[in-house]
């Protein structure tokens, strides 16, 4: 296995993107905030965008952003979008980062259950520590939360197995690396589009105004046919690593 930055191996960009698209529903890729900020993330923070290669093939990857956080719950970003904005705006304003926020990690299905996600997260954590960042956090998108879209993230965060670990495999992965749950990221991503766009992203019909269970969505999607708008506000879950 080899760990490289995506900046060092730009020819693998498409292969890395395919690993991420394999893991998330289409609508996730239509959040307006990343569209405005990811280009600058790639320019400012290439050190925190890594891939794991197995015989030259991308089998896992992950990226993170350094940001200023004072360590209190009140100062946490509201989620993924807000962390992205705080990191980029802080860099441009000359604000010294204190923490690293994992933003995403993915493993190719061919390498499931081999500990590859842990490899990615530990490498990003090592880089944060080497750079003097004092805290590592993440707005998690729990793997099984889409099965319970009407349950709040605060309630879901309390669901544990008899051994004390969470029922959700992605939360467990972080717990096994020493992470503790901080609380919900209430407005982590906001995705808006026309009804036709949402029907295409979700591959389902929205015949009347109302709230819908959409495959892959952690919360309900609100569709307003009269206004021709669909709005999805996703809750994530903040955790903090040791």
Automatic annotation (TrEMBL):
Gene3D superfamilies: 3.40.630.30. The lineage of its organism: Bacteria, Bacillati, Actinomycetota, Actinomycetes, Micromonosporales. This is N-acetyltransferase.
